[in-house]
Write a structure and sequence with these properties.
Helix content is 47%, strand content 8%. The chain is built from 5 helices and 3 strands. A 3-stranded antiparallel β-sheet has the order 1-3-2. Helix 3 runs antiparallel to helix 5.
Amino acid sequence: MFVISTSLKEVPEEEKDILRYPSRVQIFLIQDFSRVSDRCDLLIHLDSYADKLFLAREVNELIGICELLIQRYCTPNEAWLVNQAHYYPNEPWLIHQSNELIMELHQFLELLKRMCIASVYQNALIYFWGD
């Protein structure tokens, strides 16, 4: 689970402030992307049983990783799907409704990217709680 935190002991008060890292998304990225590149190891090979505090530099790196993975997996090649994205500005993952895994991947990456950007503006860090 990812949360914005200013300290290791800070627990989010609301469920909406927690972003879960779906195991099938992580497995997909490990199987598909990590064979190609190690540029996204910070996210892809995150130990799901350990806790991790992402430092400011790593939060910025997570934003770049999210953008790279969105570009690789979630940006449609068909022009009509790209045009359809204008209908979902707040929920761009909905353009992938025919592929549940890509939709879940896109949703996770977009929300993690937004969380990282919010943490930069709040001068906070991202904390990952393992299972």
